[in-house]
Each structure stands twice: as structure tokens, then as C-alpha cells.
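Re: the 121-residue chain
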Amino acid sequence: MTENMWSYQQTTHRVASTDLTGYKVEATDGSIGKVDKHSDEVEDSYIVVDTGVWIFGKEVLLPASTVIRIDETEQKIYVDRTKDQIKDAPEFHRDKHLGDPDYRNDLGTYYGVAGPLGGPF
């Protein structure tokens, strides 16, 4: 995993001014929805994905470090997690969690400690 889960991986090439809203998001095993909101703040980057009917219209917040590739031509973002791993992440409520440090810690435990590059996933 990257040193900072709230930063894009060095291998992820993207133009910082690109608006990712509406980009499709692909897990390692299929589509999970579209970007509804994103942040490019230094060491506080993330995407919020509207999952549509996949998990009953919920949103999920994915730290930028989960992004492995952005295809600006196809308007797709690829993440290094499976659909089940994303579905099992701490529940996200936009009004409650966007600025909540406790929620960020929960995500840090879930995404930062474990994962395909550094843990039991």
C-alpha cells in the first residue's frame, strides 16, 4: 500500500484539473458505479462512488490510494479492490462522514492495514 492512503499512487497518471465526476468505477471483478464526488486535496484525496442498484443506491468512499489507473479517454477509474471488499467497507453517509476523523480512522484500518499489496485480503 502507499505511504499515504489519501494520496494517489505514483503509478496513477492523471491530470490534476480533470473532473472525475461521472467516471465509471471498476473493481478488480467488475463495475461498482460512478464517481459522484472527488477530492484532489494534497494528502486528502478520495472518490465517492454512487453504487446505483449494485448495493441498493448507497455511496462508498474510496481513498485515492485504492485507485490504480485512470483512463481519461474511456472515463473509467480502476481500483485494486474486489466488489465484496468495497461492499464490506465501513458504511458511508455523506452528511455524517466527509469531515469525520473517526470515520477516516475506520477507513484507515480497513483500507490501509489490509489489502492486496500488504495484508490478508
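The chain has a mean pLDDT of 82.
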